[in-house]
Design a protein that fits this description.
230 residues; 5-stranded mixed barrel; binds S-adenosyl-L-homocysteine
Length: 230
């Protein structure tokens, strides 16, 4: 039996999905509410992890160990790193990187020691399904690398560095942590991130203005994806 885990970092990223869950019960672990039920006819565990890599990782690990999810999708908002993605457009992960992981005194920047990887690959089947869902919904979207780090990226300097170092198309703060947890647990994973800001310039104004609509689009794509599989 497949159980799909859906993680959003913030309330605004899970509110719509939570309101649509059927036969739901809630269990709280480490301060995170896990909502167990069904969505679009599929078994789903939904959680708001909190912002940043640590909360995202503990949320993913709990979903796997305690609630037995067999796949995880991360739905939320992100800053764009490419002229091909504007506010409201969708980034789908082909891989995730941790742009703030740096043991570069001896290693390439971004290398995660132990597993010795920079790019944590997304599940190609889920990424393909999300690609098709976005195409069918007529949403401008790109598949590419999503970069995560414990920083709200708001300067051109950092943005340019992340692009030139990782060739990433969107930046946020959780997906690569979930990707790492999923990789070591052999759980399929992909991220849907809708652009809320340009990750430079007037980023704070953009983010505040567009976060809600971007989060709603991401939830809509997640719902269409579940529906397409049912
Ligand atoms: N005080 C805010 C913090 C939001 S941080 C709160 O808790 O409500 C921004 C969130 O949106 C993170 O979860 C991150 O994944 C995403 N995000 C959107 N734009 C981003 C950017 N330019 N850089 C980093 N993360 C971004």
């Amino acid at each position: 039996m497949q159980i799909t885990g859906i993680i959003g970092a913030m309330d605004v990223e899970v509110a719509i999905l939570r309101s649509m869950m059927k036969n739901a019960r809630t269990e709280t672990v480490s301060g995170i509410d896990f909502i167990i039920g069904s969505l679009e006819g599929r078994r789903v565990v939904l959680a708001r992890s909190g912002v940043g890599k640590v909360f995202a990782a503990l949320c993913a690990q709990t979903m796997i160990l305690k609630f037995g999810v067999t796949e995880i999708v991360n739905s939320g908002v992100a800053g764009t790193l490419t002229p091909e993605l504007h506010i409201g457009d969708v980034a789908i992960s082909t891989a995730c990187v941790q742009h703030d992981m740096d043991t570069s005194a001896g290693d390439p920047v971004g290398l995660i020691s132990g597993i010795n990887m920079i790019e944590l690959p997304a599940d190609t089947k889920i990424a393909d399904e999300l690609d098709r869902v976005c195409a069918a919904a007529n949403v401008n979207h790109r598949l590419g690398v999503i970069a995560s780090g414990d920083q709200f990226v708001h300067t051109t300097e950092r943005r340019v560095w992340i692009v030139s170092t990782f060739n990433a198309s969107a930046v946020e703060m959780e997906a690569a942590a979930i990707a790492q947890v999923c990789f070591v647990n052999k759980i399929p994973f992909a991220a849907i991130r809708v652009i809320s800001d340009e990750a430079s310039g007037d980023v704070k104004i953009d983010y505040m203005t567009f976060v809600k609509a971007a989060a709603a689009t991401s939830s809509d794509i997640a719902l269409r994806w579940l529906r397409a599989r049912a």
